[in-house]
TrEMBL record:
InterPro entries: Lipoprotein_NlpA
Name of the protein described by the UniProt record: Lipoprotein
Domain of life: Bacteria
Subcellular location: Membrane
SUPFAM superfamilies documented for this protein: Periplasmic binding protein-like II
Length: 273
């Protein structure tokens, strides 16, 4: 009888544990009814997300939490490990390079806007006024460095070797008429470097943060036509069908957000939908 009682107790305990684990699993699944946590660069990404949060999300039944990051690495690693649900800060060439190098599994959901890359200077008013031997600062991450060099190539400042892609470096310059010197820096440092170099190619978000107006202040600026560098909402692969992600994707490409981008950024950020 004692053995039968002991067996029954063990069975009841096991059942309770199973029930507990099932409940925990249910709780985990119900997280999709909680706030969607999105990692974003402060400008313009977090500003756009906060507009959605303050003006559109509640009516759509979406709880949204925005976490700001100032670097280009943490948002993807945080999305990969589940610290955040999604991110909004990057373009396809950058993501392809990141996934390849870091072994992450981040995928795009919807493209929202383009931040044209621009060449800026405190010393000259036109790109053609750059002196021989001038120093130009460029981003040091693979994709944005190539993008910067392509911008200079497109505007006749340098000429790249034929066929170079998204991994171009200064070594791929075929012709450098002015003998420009290139200083490779982390993208967030570029606006501050303007006092120390003759010019700098700066990502749109960092330019705006530094009170530069890309549409007015850039010596040369990327064209939005057929531009592959649109910024998108992204998630870890497998989470594309999360109802909260779908709601946010719809809101980010709404007429209200397009008007917000047009009114707030005056051509320095361009809606891509």
């Amino acid at each position: 009888m004692r053995n039968a009682t002991k067996t029954l107790a063990i069975a009841l305990t096991a059942g309770a544990l199973t029930l507990g684990l099932t409940a925990c699993g249910a709780d985990k699944g119900s997280d999709k009814n909680g706030a969607l946590v999105v990692a974003a660069s402060p400008v313009p990404h977090a500003e756009i997300l906060n507009y959605v949060k303050d003006h559109l999300a509640e009516k759509a039944g979406l709880k949204l939490e925005v976490k700001e990051f100032t670097d280009y690495n943490t948002p993807n690693t945080a999305t990969e490990d589940g610290s955040v649900d999604a991110n909004y800060f990057q373009n396809q060439p950058f993501l392809d390079d990141f996934n390849k190098k870091k072994g992450t599994h981040i995928v795009p959901v919807v493209t929202v806007h383009l931040e044209p890359l621009g060449l800026y200077s405190h010393n000259v008013k036109k790109a053609g006024d750059l002196k021989s031997g001038a120093t130009v600062a460029i981003p040091n991450d693979t994709v944005n460095e190539a993008r910067a060099l392509k911008l200079l190539d497109a505007n006749g400042i340098i000429k790249l070797k034929s066929g170079v892609g998204n991994e171009a470096t200064p070594k791929d310059i075929a012709d450098n008429p002015k003998g420009l010197k290139f200083k490779e820096l982390e993208a967030p440092q570029l606006p501050r470097a303007l006092d120390d170099v003759d010019a700098a190619v700066i990502n749109g978000n960092y330019a705006i943060e530094a009170d530069l107006k890309p549409a007015k202040d850039a010596l040369v600026l990327e064209s939005p036509k057929n531009n592959p560098y649109g910024n998108f909402l992204a998630v870890k692969k497998g989470n594309e069908d999360d109802p909260r992600v779908k709601k946010l994707a719809k809101l980010l490409t709404s007429p209200e957000v397009k008007k917000f981008i047009q009114d707030k950024y005056d051509g320095s950020v361009i809606a891509s939908f």
